[in-house]
Amino acid sequence: MTQKKPTYVRPLDLKTGRIDMAHGAGGRASHQLIGEVFARAFANPLLAQGNDGTVLPAPAPGERLVVATDGHVISPLFFPGGDIGCLSVHGTVNDVAMTGARPLYLTASFILEEGFPLADLKRIAESMAAAAREAGVAVVAGDTKVVERGKGDGVFIATTGVGALPAGRDTGGANARPGDVVLVSGTIGDHGVAILSERESLSFETAIRSDTAALNGLVEAMFAAVPPAAIRVLRDPTRGGLATTLNEIAGQSGAGIELDESAIPVEPQVAAACELLGLDPLYLANEGKLIAIVAPELAEVVLDAMRAHPLGQRAARVGTVVEDANGFVRMRTQMGGQRVVDWLSGEPLPRIC
Amino acid sequence: MTQKKPTYVRPLDLKTGRIDMAHGAGGRASHQLIGEVFARAFANPLLAQGNDGTVLPAPAPGERLVVATDGHVISPLFFPGGDIGCLSVHGTVNDVAMTGARPLYLTASFILEEGFPLADLKRIAESMAAAAREAGVAVVAGDTKVVERGKGDGVFIATTGVGALPAGRDTGGANARPGDVVLVSGTIGDHGVAILSERESLSFETAIRSDTAALNGLVEAMFAAVPPAAIRVLRDPTRGGLATTLNEIAGQSGAGIELDESAIPVEPQVAAACELLGLDPLYLANEGKLIAIVAPELAEVVLDAMRAHPLGQRAARVGTVVEDANGFVRMRTQMGGQRVVDWLSGEPLPRIC
Prior knowledge:
By secondary structure, the first copy, chain A, is an alpha+beta fold. In chain A, about 30% of the residues lie in helices and about 25% in strands. In chain A, about 60% of the residues are buried.
């Protein structure tokens, strides 16, 4: 872009400045915000095209496309282990990765509230950029809107991910078969407890941190270990938690799932916080965990591959797929009984992601 | 999906019901909302995959990908000529189409405010679905979040579009060359005036309607008429209007633009409303118009192709690209003078899209 006007434009005050309505009006102030905050944080040659749509290379021959989208309205915006910025990258990268695809590109739509501190926006943009770099994806297109004070809540971020799906991978929720093994990549409930404890200003002896992380590297490590058909289903148990996600899979596959309560990894501090708050970790959101349903004969191989990856060290075999046309999820409890694990209903945990 | 539970679930009350926090929690209520409102409106086999990411066919050989994203926060949600639903389709379809690509897929992220009427949400979803059908794109993935009353404003919609770009098309803002001709596809300012008049509760003798429309058909008609290299730049003058968009192009191309005020099509009612409201139609948003910068020797052929299309009947030649390394946009006024047409600055028109 040529130096267009000799006029002196004062740089944004990124220390004490705030978003005003002009930042969303599409004129000079919008361009300045985009240039000094977003373009600087996300800098890459694709984004630098500077047009309303971004032209991307086609996927390699034989690869299909994958898209996923996710809106992020988490409160608070900053929490132990992360913030809305990295979360908005992880959430969408993971939705793409759960199809077996390699996430490549992200778009980001920001809805900002008038008065939001520019310093916080910069911190969020930099957190997104770091998360995108770490996950190996480029933020290639964006949009910024501003709403009046009291018509939003700081910042909402909707991200959309585009990935390339290698031939032979099919990890949709309908592929679980009786006999398959249910794996989970680590401890559950960490994200939900981290957010709730921050929100309720609870102080636990050891702070629990969100598990927010991009899972595409873990997924590639799993596919590197076994033929693709052995990995039947991948899904990340976010809103609604492990319980709701397994119910979705059971419903889509027309099969039941039997869980072993004692095998489900839960951090002691998470268990203690759940006791205190009256919550069940099975229903708490996770942002850096995946469920894999795999062929029984290769379950141990997949599990070893998961455990060898930094994000799967506490991976565990937690259950089995069984014949059940009604698609119930049941759990053998630590007391030796059995109970039905239903979908999340009743009191919701709002704005957890 | 198998019929999972024998439990009787009461259908949503789509007449008098309202969004509550549970609709965003990812459990049973979320699934019901998605099923009864969004999946019903957008029904297509890709969306029906029902996984977090959606698998799409690869583009044809030789085609590149295009993505664009846009957040929609327009107020009011319903306005003469459209609503946030169709606008959220048109806005993103047009951003994809302005690269010369054929828009194929859309994703939609909804941020709903607690208490929002389900009847309005259904009407918006149906408007989106109709606009998508008309534009020939499928809504293939979505997400729904709910924020507390007073933390949003009814509904915000972020859409992302994916398209396929045929070889040989390159319509980025940096391609204007001195001598090229500037075309606009019709009257300017209609959308801005429609929104402002609704917002200010002004009553004009004849109601002005938003021009919101999908422009991909018009773009294809233009490419059908001339070799692709003749169409140098395409851009839709949304926020910031014709003036700001031409300044962007001039800056990207490192060339000046000379406009002829008398040639710029403006509806008399729009001109009158602008007089009344103290606005300049050059800075008002359009949602169904495009600017084309074209090779001079084929300008008339492109113009004829535009005029033969329902969305280009009032297309006009409004200016010329000139040598000017500073990238100024100048206008010969109807009084015979000349003035610089600057970027939008000063008082913004908030939430116009």
